[in-house]
Design goal:
mainly beta; 2 helices; 363 residues
Length: 363
Amino acid sequence: MKRLCLFFNVVLVMSLGTGLGWAQMPVDKPVVRLDPALDSIISPDAKIEVVKRGFGFTEGQIWIQHAKEGYLLFVDIPNNVINKLTPDGKVSVFLDHAGYPGPITGFEMLTVGSIKDNGLSPKDPLYKTNVMVNIGPDGLGVDPQGRIVVCTYVGRSMMRIEKDGKRTILADRYEGKRFNGPNDVTIKKNGTIYFTDTNGGLRGGAKDPTRGVENAGVYMIKDGKVTYVVMDMPSVNGLALSADEKYLYVNGANKIRRYDVQPDDTVTNSQPFIDLTADPAWGYTDGMRVDSKGNVWVTGPGGIWIISPEGKHLGTILAPGEKIANFGFGDPDWKTVYLGGRTGIYKIRVNTPGIPCHTCTSN
């Protein structure tokens, strides 16, 4: 039955053809320079390359590097898997049934998870609604012990994959109420986990009868305890820590706010960082990363915005023919950015490296 479900998802996606946009090639000049400071971060002539296509909806890109062995992990939400992509271009399933943990039957396909469009602007003539059922996980992170932490999204929990492959549920409730769709995650060097919870894991969204916690926001897992730490954003999606872990950035509804991280890992002093709402291009804040120099990278209108630590928009990497939901720095030097499109994985070389995962080494 599970294979039938995967077949259903793939057929549903592939039957739309170019309506998903993945057959389009990346733009010739994807780097839009708004400030000379961008040149030290990414070269103006950098090119986007296609790595792999043929997925349903990719998310959660993280790079794992141990000595000479490196690989990309990413999720395929409608197919409910975490995939592993090696430098030779081979893709294998790293974890199956990684989001919704229950049985996969026709009934679940009609009631579980969320229904998504094809990621194009509603003004685009190729825009289509209701093209896929998202039943899988979303954001991924790596803890200080090298274990993968998963926002199960439709599974409505935060899960950790142990070194022996076993799964541990870290949290699925706050004050007795279930989470609605853990979306993205960032982890401190001391092991404290921050994650966003949204209504995206529910078929009926905010009106779903199974809805648990009433407010979207950012939660913290520390020493086994769950704490609600960001309550002043009506909509949340991606989040990231600064390189020195002094700040937590949170985005939602094309705005980013910055918070001071306190000694007990709670956050305070909520401040607006940048507002992207004035840009009319299609796209919205979702995946977010901070590079080794403190620049904030975030998906937004038109593609990926690169923003200085002071909140100045330095430039944009244009989306390669389909909307980018998330991305991650990778390769041994952490100077390749892997872009996750709806159906494809792309990459572009940069000058400023990202921040390696807690246990990643290049030697």
